[in-house]
User: Fold this.
Amino acid sequence: DGNSYIDYCCSWGALIHGHAHPVILQAVQQRMTKGTSFGITTEIEERLARKIVELVHSIEKVRFVSSGTEATMSAVRLARGFTHRKIIVKFDGNYHGHADSFLIKAGSGVTELAESSSAGIPKELVKYTVSLPYNELDSTREFLLNPTYRDDIAAVILEPIAGNMGVVPGKPEFIQLLRETTEKIGALLIFDEVITGFRVALGGAQSLYQTKPDLTCLGKIIGGGFPAAAFGGRAEIMDYLAPNGPVYQAGTLSGNPVAMEAGLQAIMLLQEPGFYKELERKANIITRDLPVPVKQVGSMFSLSVEPFPPFFRFLYERGIYIPPSQYESWFVSSAHQDSHLEMMRDAILEWCSQSAQLPY
Ligand code: PLP
Assistant:
């Protein structure tokens, strides 16, 4: 509309190289001349799959889909099919996309009392989902080991570094508890790394925690700005998927060659030496010593600013676009230059010095 903005939403974290990166654009343009969709596996899909298997240490086999929602939804179906169990445990404040069974009210800790958080979802469809407090060891242990439920828990799914209630890293002892307890009760551990995959490190959050989940969901960055996502994990589990196994999953545009090309190019750019260190250095230009609480892991962070809407408008009027909710993470991309980041920092400092006097 003729205005320009410096973007720190970056398509909710997908654009780690910023908008219209020339390398990605050029490769995509070339790829498009060969056809844009075939509905079957292509060589470029295999190349991206091999790259993911090489870099994400828990993934032996991977299946592409078109959105993070499909990735988590399919991972949960696979976990239920593999374990022959029903209950899915998730955590309050974690977002796994908009599939019915995830949209349960926070704190619905007992299956019979589960209540959906959205209209249009009968309560029966969230009956086998449980939402527990994040990072709380005692209540989690208690539920997972509860004799009434433990043999019916198919999977525990979480964002190992939560990015949808501000940035909240999982406590290492929480992640460890989940790994040990799921193994003990025969449930699968699913890391939703739709945000953190290729964002916090090449190997995702699981490489930082040195933990191997059974299944991992990826999205955002692996599409290089195009619709692509994936789920993958141990071969033994992935082999339960159709057509090899009994768990149905399919998608017309899954593994779309244009999206695969963009994703592969994006990941190869991430492999340049020092990429993640440099991105964190850039993020620190904004976040160092701010007079508001900051939560940060590498290039993803969130600021606790109350009230949020006038803060959003204040930045927007200065040509800065941040995610329009305080529960979302902000993202720095390799396209941001130091001058953009300094400008952002100055704008936040200006807000802080003025906001005490504003009538909000
Ligand atoms: N999982 C996480 C952690 C997410 O942040 C999101 C989206 O923001 C999703 C899943 C769903 O992905 P999509 O919006 O591509 O369906």
In short: The CA atoms of residues 143 and 149 lie 7 Å apart.
